[in-house]
Design a protein that fits this description.
Layout (H helix, E strand, L loop, with lengths): L1 H20 L12 E17 L4 E7 L3 E24 L8 E21 L9 E24 L4 E14 L3 E5 L13 E14 L4 E15 L8 E3 L2 E17 L16 E2 L2 E2 L7
Antiparallel strand pairs: 1-3, 1-11, 2-3, 3-4, 4-5, 5-6, 5-7, 6-8, 8-9, 9-11, 10-11, 12-13
């Protein structure tokens, strides 16, 4: 998975460097009926991607029992949503806009366990099987800084770096069917990370911008685990993937109203106001 992250960064970094060398491309209007800020809504599908390496353990029980344990993790698809505000950034060539969001999401996964007794001379091996299921219901707060690069007149590429804080309000970790003394790891309820977003967007209307994207963590600062971007649950590691479709809805500019006419000017009035004498001064 680290190779995939490195590839994403290598794809995104030239875009960021190129943005610093030339004038910033802008997706927001500088004139017209809409402001350079507004609301953002992002429904999402979530998936906990398991690691690609096989997880095995040799478990010693007592003095003469040895089990070879295999762990088979699998992710499950779930949902989430974010709502927030965005603002165009005019003072930077690198950052096109920033956004601050609150939201909720569900992260789910499974781990199957198969423990085979290593018994020499046995005609039939003894096997113990179990399954762990977890569900995380996260409340989230996130901040993103985004760079935009147009690929053609209609489609642009998004690269974002951000931070996110999350709290698991309904943690659920259940392991069943395995009577062996295997320690189960469960993470804490509070999480603080840095993340990366890559996506492609387009203008659906003068007021609406749509950006499908994918988000994944880059590093975890709390709970600290050597800054690893994956979560250690049971005996496996899982990488959260967030498949978002972000809608940027621009605020409308206030209508400009001409001053109403309050009647004709009296003879005693001038452009300077009321006249106390024959001269306005």
């Amino acid at each position: 998975m680290r190779k995939i992250l490195i590839l994403l960064v290598l794809v995104g970094m030239p875009m960021l460097v190129d943005a610093q060398m030339r004038k910033k491309e802008d997706i927001f209007p500088r004139a017209g009926n809409y402001e350079r800020r507004g609301w953002t809504v992002a429904p999402m599908a979530t998936y906990m991607l398991p690691g690609f390496k096989e997880v095995r353990q040799r478990l010693f029980i007592g003095n003469d029992s040895v089990y070879n344990v295999n762990y088979d993790p699998r992710g499950r698809v779930s949902v989430g949503i974010e709502v927030g505000r965005f603002q165009a950034v005019d003072a930077s060539r690198l950052i096109s806009f920033v956004d601050l969001n609150i939201g909720a999401k569900i992260l789910r996964g499974i781990e199957d366990t198969e423990a085979v007794l290593d018994e020499r001379g046995a005609i039939r091996s003894r096997t113990a099987r179990g399954q762990g299921i977890f569900n995380q219901h996260m409340l989230t707060l996130s901040f993103n800084a985004t760079n935009i690069k147009y690929l053609n007149k209609q489609v642009f590429m998004r690269n974002s770096l951000g931070i996110n804080g999350e709290y698991n309000i309904l943690p659920s970790y259940m392991y069943s069917g395995n009577s062996l003394p295997i320690e189960q790891n469960t993470p804490g309820n509070l999480l603080f990370q840095a993340h990366y977003i890559i996506g492609f967007g387009f203008h659906a209307s003068p007021q609406l911008i749509i950006i499908p994207s994918i988000e994944t963590p880059l590093a975890t600062f709390f709970e600290y685990d050597d800054l690893k971007s994956t979560q250690h649950i049971f005996h496996s590691r899982y990488r959260p993937l967030l498949f978002k479709c972000q809608f940027l809805i621009l605020d409308k500019r206030p209508d400009r109203k001409c001053p109403t006419k309050k009647g004709s000017r009296r003879n005693s009035e001038s452009l300077f106001g009321m006249m106390s004498g024959k001269q306005p001064w």
